[in-house]
Structures are given as structure tokens and as C-alpha cells.
Amino acid sequence: MANGTTTSQTDTPDQGTLRIHVESLLNAPVENARIAISYTGEPDSTIEEVLTDANGNTEILTLPTPPVEYSLTPSEIQPYAEYTFRITAPGFEPTSISGAELFSGQLALQNVRLNPSSAGAFDNLVIPAHTLFYEYPPKIAEAEIKPVSETGKIVLSRVVIPEYIVVHDGSPRDSTAQDYYIRYRDYIKNVASSEIYATWPRSTIIANVLAIQSFTLNRVYTEWYRNRQ
Predict the structure, then answer these.
(1) CA nearest to 101, candidates 134, 52, 123, 58
(2) What is the DSSP letter of 117?
(3) Rounded distance, CA 82 to CA 100, Å?
(4) Gene3D superfamilies in the record, alphabetically (predicted)?
């Protein structure tokens, strides 16, 4: 699919809801964090400003979105609104998140982790366009048969659903790219949110999530089996 047309801010007759949760690197909620919300592309035009409560949560906000129909049928028009959040809190470095996606009739949950002020750096996070809307380069194919080598990792005696999986942040051939240990359920959730529109029928979403889980567990199993040989 060719790159689509970005939705204009005037083409937002529907509404979605948003809640932001702010916490520290120690997973403690941050109270009274100030969050300025603007349209991505117009970061200096604040449309909402809210504070977090004792649990680190904002109130549930209602914001404009494109029509739900844009996400239910193939279209060249962006089916979601994009928002930017600027978060400040005493004792923490300011953080900016841009490109947050909001769909018609859906509740978006945005988690934010703040660095302590001693970190000395402004954290600017950019959420890339949804994979169903933007045309990304094709994935690099991996060899069907891989060489067996010592990994230094523990190999269990049987296949299990893992609590954590290793995600390689780069192409399969890039040995310099970093590996991250991600909770299995968080990985599935994040992959699903980038490959599925939240407005789709529940049965369609379930089918896609099961496909993602099957692919991931197949990779875990084949790696387990390869390392057992």
C-alpha cells in the first residue's frame, strides 16, 4: 500500500478517550505530573492540560478522532488522530511523546516512565506510524536453517510459555544491535497494537492475537529445539 493521506484536524467528527499513567523508573506513581496535550504537528498549540492523581493517572479525556469508517475499510486516509504529550514533574526530567494514536470510540492508555532530574537529558519519544497505514520496507528474510552455537542461555527441558522473550533491536544480520528482555504478554500486546486497529470486530482482533502468539511461540519452540540438539 502506498503511504496514505494524513487526516486533517478538521476531519475529526468522532471522539476517542485517553488516559495517561505516569510513573518513575522504580515503578512508583508520579503525582501532580503536568501533561500538555497537543496535535502532533502543532506541539505549541496546547488543547488540553491535565495533572496526574496520587495513582499517577490522569482523568479520562475525550478528544477528537477521524470517522470510525476510515479504519474499517481499506483507505488511503489516516484512520486515527495523532497527539503529542509533554510531561513535566518536580524532580524529573521533562519528557515528550509524539505520534500517539487515538481511534474513534476507543480508550487509549499511554504509560510514561520519567527519568530522575539527575539524568540530565530531555526524553523525546516518537511513536512511528501504524504498520497498516504507512509503507515500511519489507522485512529481511532469515535463513531457514541457522548454525547451532553456544548461546550461554539456559535451555529448559521442555517447551513452556515464557515469561520473558528476547527481542533483537535490528536486522537479523546486525550482530551489533542490542537485545532486550521483554515480558511475553507485553510483547504480544505491543505487536498487536501496531498491527491491528482497535476498531475492528472483537473476533477479528482475537484471531490476529492468536496468530501473533502462535508465530512467537513457534519461534520460541524452534529456538528451544535447535539448542537441544
Answers:
(1) 134
(2) G
(3) 5
(4) Carboxypeptidase-like, regulatory domain (2.60.40.1120)
Q: Name the residue among 130, 26, 9, 19 with its Cα closest to residue 85.
A: 19
pTM of the model: 0.81
Angle between helices 202-228 and 184-195 (to 10 degrees): 130
Residue 56 neighbours by CB under 8 Å, 6+ apart? 21, 22, 23, 28, 29, 30, 31, 33
Closest to 212 measured CA to CA, from 106, 107, 131: 131
- Residue 49 has phi, psi (to 5 degrees) of -140, 125
Cβ atoms of 87 and 114 within 8 Å: the answer is: yes
**Pairing mode, strands 179-183 and 164-168:** antiparallel
Q: Which is nearest to 97 in space by CA: 28, 31, 20?
A: 20
Q: What is the CA radius of gyration of the chain?
A: 20
**Residue 85 near residue 97, CB atoms below 8 Å:** yes
- pLDDT tens across 140-193, in order? 776 665 555 555 555 556 667 889 988 888 877 788 989 989 999 999 999 999
What nine digits make up the cell of 24?
Answer: 518513575
CA distance 187 to 190: 5
Can you tell me the distance from the alpha carbon of 162 to that of 155, in angstroms, rounded to the nearest whole number?
12
Q: Pairing mode, if any, of strands 164-168 and 46-51? A: unpaired
